[in-house]
Design brief:
With 372 residues, the protein is mainly α. It has one domain (2-368): Farnesyl Diphosphate Synthase (Orthogonal Bundle). 77% of the residues lie in helices and 1% in strands. It is globular, with a radius of gyration of 21 Å.
């Protein structure tokens, strides 16, 4: 646990240092561009750092000869510098994805504060600028998300430059490219599901929701960081396959927990209003299971309300009660348990360090039993 804590501190230091280095470049162009680093810092401050942690323990899992040695105790080794840079890159990429996701979902809040596009709207209004504050906020946030994507590539390249093995560099780069492509395609599938769901047969609702989970979240949140870390560590194809067998079901369980929190989470813990996913019309596995269990008249009312941006608190509670009464929560909880068990089982036969196995099992619990 101390090793993971040290990693989180190193990643935060790495993020701060990275932004410190970019800020003069922006200021040299125009003072107002430092708004990008300012708001990036706020977004990247704190957080659970799951992607960074899974990346590190994916790397650590391949260090069979390391024994009980904690490499973070002396992180002057270029290998450690490489994996920390990769972890920083994953956090920058995640921040970019959050900015763009909030624009797509028209979300007002993120982590208890204003979402980035709303923050830029406020800047516009407070400045008394001409034109549409909403349009400015959206445009500025898109650009900040884009520059965070570019910066994530820079940070990743810095990590690769510290990796001695050309084979490890190529493998890690390939995993990184795959992750970026899959999450963007998964985001598109999510948008399609929200807006085209009426055109699909009822029998496709659940499989389509499951596919979104795979590509928008499960692979990107856990499987890809594990594979990137293992590739940086020189892991074999068998090593990566074993970690994928652990990471994919765990990633599914992770997102299913997120879906439950998106409907029933405590706003003081999640940083978002209760039932936010209901207002956004998310066609999740939870929603698909609830609809499948409802009688036709209840399904029609449920569909009429789901996705209405102006749902009252009473209507949100009504939808929440409908989902509860359908038995969908219990079904999702069972799926979470089943996937966590599958992940743990896969880890038992994996040829990895004992310390990595223990930490990955701990992460499996914290990623799927969380309240935020």
């Amino acid at each position: 646990m101390a090793e993971s804590t040290r990693l989180v501190d190193l990643v935060q230091d790495g993020i701060n240092r990275f932004l410190d280095e970019r800020e003069p470049e922006l200021r040299d162009i125009a003072d107002e561009l430092t708004a990008f680093t300012h708001h990036a810092r706020a977004l990247l401050r704190g957080g659970k750092r799951f992607r960074a942690l899974f990346c590190y323990w994916g790397w650590q899992s391949t260090q069979i000869s390391a024994g009980a040695f904690d490499p973070l105790a002396d992180h002057s080794d270029p290998q450690i510098d490489a994996v920390v840079h990769a972890a920083v890159a994953l956090e920058l990429f995640h921040a970019a994805a959050l900015v763009h996701d909030d624009i797509i979902d028209n979300s007002d809040t993120r982590r208890g504060g204003e979402s980035i596009h709303r923050t830029f709207e406020t800047i516009h209004r407070d400045g008394g600028w001409s034109g549409s504050a909403e349009s400015f906020g959206r445009s500025a946030a898109i650009l900040l998300g884009d520059i965070l994507l570019a910066w994530s590539d820079e940070a990743f390249d810095e990590g690769l430059a510290r990796t001695a093995s050309s084979a490890a560099r190529a493998a890690a780069r390939g995993e990184h490219h795959r992750m970026r492509t899959e999450v963007m395609l998964g985001q598109y599938l999510d948008i399609v599901n929200e807006q085209a769901w009426r055109t699909y047969p009822e029998s496709e609702q659940l499989p389509r929701a499951h596919r979104v989970i795979l590509y928008k979240s499960a692979k990107y949140s856990i499987e890809a960081p594990l594979a990137i870390g293992a590739a940086l560590g020189g892991g074999t194809a068998a090593d990566l396959a074993a970690l994928r067998a652990f990471g994919l079901p765990l990633g599914i369980a992770y997102q299913l927990r997120d879906d439950l929190l998106g409907v029933f989470g405590d706003p003081s813990m999640t940083g978002k209003p209760s039932g936010d996913d209901l207002r956004e019309g998310k066609r999740t596995v939870l929603v698909a299971l609830a609809r499948a269990a409802l009688p036709p008249n209840a399904t029609r009312l449920f569909d009429e309300l789901l996705g209405e941006r102006d749902l009252s608190d009473l209507q949100v509670r009504m939808l929440q009660d409908t989902i509860k009464d359908s038995g969908a929560i219990e079904s999702v909880e069972r799926i979470i348990v089943r996937n966590v068990e599958q992940a743990k089982s896969a880890l038992e036969s994996a040829t990895i360090t004992a310390r990595a196995r223990m930490e990955l099992l701990n992460l499996a619990e914290s990623a799927t039993a969380r309240t935020a």
